[in-house]
Amino acid sequence: MPIENTLSIIKPDATKRNITGLINAKIEKAGLKIVAQKRIMLSKELAEKFYSVHKDRPFFNDLVNFMISGPVIVQVLRGENAVSLNRSIMGATNPTDAEEGTIRSEFAQSVEANSVHGSDSLENALKEISFFFAEIDILI
Ligand code: ADP
Ligand code: MG
Fold first, then answer.
1. pLDDT by residue (tens digit) across 63-115?
2. How many Å apart are CA 96 and CA 31, to the nearest integer?
3. Catalytic residue among 117, 125, 128, 133
4. Parallel, antiparallel, or unpaired: how do β-strands 116-118 and 3-10 relate?
5. Ligand 1 within 6 A of 114 CB?
6. Is 54 a catalytic residue?
7. Could you tell me the pTM of the whole model?
8. Who surrounds ion ligand 2 at CB < 5 A?
């Protein structure tokens, strides 16, 4: 199986509740390695740019305001099939649809405040990682 890198974000609802370690434990238990990580405050401009694919969706403004409502942890996860493995341990976007044992099933508060972001394809993972990290920041 291919070794991949994927971008993960622990969202403000989770940093506020001090559960970033619980989320990281689930990531590591699944066999993914956190090879880069930083706690940052997104600007409105950066959040809008990061989520620009959703700019025409009705929830876009709320999503941007939520993402800048507190610190986030951006991280690069590495492992076999990291992109799809991370999506499967995250669970569905809406926590009411998320499978038991997934991060969103256990920790998400709503479809918006759903605790984590994860890249949805290898192509987007490459783009999203380079949005936040330089190659020198990623320590395998
Ligand atoms: P995912 O994060 O599972 O890839 P999307 O890319 O579709 O989901 O959406 C990006 C983020 O926008 C979601 O994680 C969630 O925070 C928010 N979001 C998605 N759909 C809705 C919705 N119907 N109402 C409010 N917020 C939403
Ligand atoms: Mg998405």
1. 999 999 999 999 999 999 999 999 999 999 999 999 999 999 999 999 999 99
2. 25
3. 117
4. antiparallel
5. yes
6. no
7. 0.99
8. 120
